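Table S7 (text form). Paired inputs.
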Amino acid sequence: NHILREAEAVSTVNDLRTISIEGFGKEKGLVFTRELIRANNFKCSDDVVDSILNIIGIPVHPFFVQLLVSFLANEIRDRDLKEPSVEDVGTVYWSRVLGLEGKIYFDHYYQRLFSYYSPLEADGAREILAHLSVNPELTKRQVFEIFHRIAGDTDIKPNKLREAFERMMDDLMNDFYLEYDRANDCYRFRYKILQDWWGQQHPAFDFQI
């Protein structure tokens, strides 16, 4: 949406229907994970399969499950394991998937803020995501306060600042970073793995909200 907006081409898609693509639920995630494990030629207990889904989080993003299972297969080969344990899943997730080995698969989530967002929106989005990485959720008021603090002594008029905030938050939802809970008026990360990665790699400079 923000690319179309910047290209002044929003009107060209007004007659098209927007389809929201969500992650898998738990049951489909279990089937998908078991098939991935079979395709990677190793066996594991049901407890290990459950731990993979628990650490990735629901909804289940298929790409990130593929990533974890692939790194787990590497761990099995590297350590000559008969089969992985629940503890191995946690170790691989935090040290390999979210560590330096997995960096290339996540960096675009950080870099595209500076490619597609305005400088103010990029700085605001980065700090908002950092705060949400250590909080299960934040109210819309709290999120706007972070954005307002990042804007500092800007000469942008209050109504324009609010418009920039609303536009940025819409983009963060369209880009799969966040979701908005209208009933509770709060934002949270859409996928747990992105929340974990952001908290580990890009912590907030100031945790006062």
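Next pair, protein 2 of 2.
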Amino acid sequence: MAAKLKITTSFLFAILFCSFSTAAQVTMSGKVIDVIDGDTVIIEIPSGKFQATLQFIETPTREQAMFDTVKQHLRQLVYGKSVVFRARTISYEASTGQLTLNDIDMSEQMLRDGAAWLVPVRFTAQQSDEHTRYASFEAAARKENRGIWAVK
């Protein structure tokens, strides 16, 4: 009887979780334990760890100039710190969403610091007012020739 109850409880939890995740964004708090590249981190939460990708931005790939600089910049911002991650998409490989540290959106910060490019709105589900805000951070960095904008 106990095993049957355990299976039923687990099944109900799975249904509840799936219902919740499709109806609303999933928010998790944890600590950044690794930085993979300029827009991807590993976050440890009480139930384990997962890979999180910052929303709406692209950063230099390993083959591009400034890869190490941008990766190090993100590391300095978030490594070892408590963050909140609000997932927009969830998969086994990586979840994509908003990563905040002390209520600061790290995608916005990376754009403002000249450490990222904004992904065109046609490739994202970003709301237009949100895209305008993100674009203003990128435009400011570009105008000041910060980071990636200083590279020819």
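The beta strands are 26-37, 40-45, 48-54, 57-58, 82-89, 95-101, 104-105, 117-118.
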